[in-house]
């Protein structure tokens, strides 16, 4: 059963997550405000960040950096800056 939420990232009604994907207060906020589509956008950015910066999910500092980037991307309207990555032209 899919749930519809108002996605603050897309600024429209969209399909919400099936369950909370991220722990804590940030996770609750993502569950309530971030659609599947927006989350998948973030997942692409996260993968690029992990690869570019050689981040390890075992490292608390790396996880903290990713969380900060995620919050900026999903809630504050900042795009993720990837060194040497040029987005394809629209």
Automatic annotation (TrEMBL):
Sections of the chain in a coiled coil: none
GO MF term set: iron ion binding
Keyword Nucleotide-binding: no
Entry-linked Pfam families: Iron_traffic
Any single biological process term in GO: cellular response to oxidative stress
CC terms in the record's Gene Ontology section: cytosol
Presence of keyword Lipoprotein: no
Keywords, sorted A to Z: Iron
Quaternary state and interactors: Monomer.
Protein's job: Could be a mediator in iron transactions between iron acquisition and iron-requiring processes, such as synthesis and/or repair of Fe-S clusters in biosynthetic enzymes. Necessary to maintain high levels of aconitase under oxidative stress.
Entry similarity comment: Belongs to the Fe(2+)-trafficking protein family.
Entry-linked HAMAP family: Fe_traffic_YggX
PANTHER family for this protein: FE(2+)-TRAFFICKING PROTEIN-RELATED
Name of protein: Probable Fe(2+)-trafficking protein
């Amino acid at each position: 059963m899919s749930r519809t939420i108002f996605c603050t990232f897309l600024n429209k009604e969209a399909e919400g997550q099936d369950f909370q994907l991220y722990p804590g207060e940030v996770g609750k906020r993502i569950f309530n405000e971030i659609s599947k589509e927006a989350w998948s956008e973030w997942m692409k950015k996260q993968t690029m960040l992990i690869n570019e910066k050689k981040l390890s999910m075992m490292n608390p500092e790396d996880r903290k950096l990713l969380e900060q980037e995620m919050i900026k991307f999903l809630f504050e309207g900042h795009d993720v800056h990837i060194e040497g990555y040029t987005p394809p032209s629209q």
